[in-house]
Amino acid sequence: MSNVVIVGTQWGDEGKGKIVDLFSDKFDIVARYQGGHNAGHTVTVQGKKYILHLIPSGIVHPGKVCVIGNGVVVDPAALLYEIETLKGLEISVEARLFISNRAHMIMPYHRAMEAGEETARADRALGTTARGIGPCYEDKMGRRGIRMGDIFNEELLAAKIRENVKLKNSLLKEIYGREPLDAEATLLEYRFLCERIKPFIVDTAEYLNREIKRGKRILFEGAQGTLLDVDHGTYPYVTASNATAGGACTGTGVGPTSIHGVVGIAKAYTTRVGAGPFPTELNDSIGEQIRVKGVEFGASTGRPRRCGWFDAVVVRYSSLINNVDTLVITKLDVLDGLEEIRICTGYAIDGKRLEGFPTDIETLERCRPIYESHPGWMEDTSSVNKYSTLPQTARRYLERLSHLIEADISIISTGPERTETIMPEEDSKLSKLL
Ligand code: GDP
Ligand code: IMO
Ligand code: MG
Prior knowledge:
By secondary structure, the chain is α/β, with parallel strands linked by helices. It has 13 helices and 20 strands.
């Protein structure tokens, strides 16, 4: 009865949504454990596209229960908008969406503080999604945050909003020279929004552990990616949560011994949205070709994603940090038609080869990728769902990736649809976990 974590091994957008959807029928519950509506997870079923931001991708499967864990930060307006959008697509969340009473709530002053800070950073701006994610986690750690459970106590909610708005207004004015927010207007807005969210709020840690005892299976849906993790990523160019597999425990209240496997998702190349070091970035026509063919534009913000070659140093590092059992390689089809494909096998500084992945961005920024070159396959792999029908050059490329990362590849994705997938062998590590 395994419970499994899906985790991004690069800088996000690896195709986690597609894989969570693919696995969902084997699980009873799908739980998000960190991040917020900065995430954009795409699920495509029979030509119909669903983009999930806060609600786990499992919602697309009728009957699956979805949990927003305590580690997630929730913007009530964004949540209600997403619920309404799903309704429009004939997906109901009634009686199958639960939100942790310990999850922190994103407030309008979080967005205002983020706008102030990003502007003040000028050329060092992080390029965040501007959703108020970072400042909300700051308040959580600063022990002044507002939790979903607080909305059941009118007096407490009012006091916390007034106190926080007062503090933020002085910071907004003194530090960023910005307009103050109106505490009473915020209070009115949040009372109205929260009334509609109350029915979804429960103690999800208690719920998940009870369901595990009853033999139910949980799929943990990571958001962002390992290199965006606040501890293990390219700090400070990261998000504000633990996107790595370990976050699944703290972000849901399910202990490590109840989690049995970690599946890492990697694209057949690399992308990054926002600022920060990216050793294999391609600022040329090949990068543009990948962006166009891979439709590499943010699912949340629409921003063009920076594109580059596969970085085996990054994914090997992620595999280590997450203790990945097996890997899924997505978007192989996007590399179709490239004459040469490169893989970064290591980094060099001043001509010297580096061991491992640097812990600070000053070093990472000085790293030059060491590439090996592979012949491309001038064939169409989109929709291929049998390993043996892949061109030999594509199989060699995948085998080389697996060797460099020191991890098995058990699924290969060749298109956005569920059916466009090379599924694992019966006796593979992944099949045993599923
Ligand atoms: P996530 O944030 O990790 O869930 O990934 P996103 O949804 O932000 O971005 C992945 C994009 O690639 C989505 O538009 C998916 O529909 C699409 N996608 C996923 N797998 C494949 C694949 O194998 N081939 C192609 N061409 N597109 C894919
Ligand atoms: P999914 O789950 C890609 C990036 C932002 C920015 C940095 C910090 O779809 O893979 P934030 O708003 O989180 O404080 O921004 O993190 N970022 C993502 N990049 N995919 C995501 O989510 C991301 N969520 C945040 O672009 O560089
Ligand atoms: Mg995404």
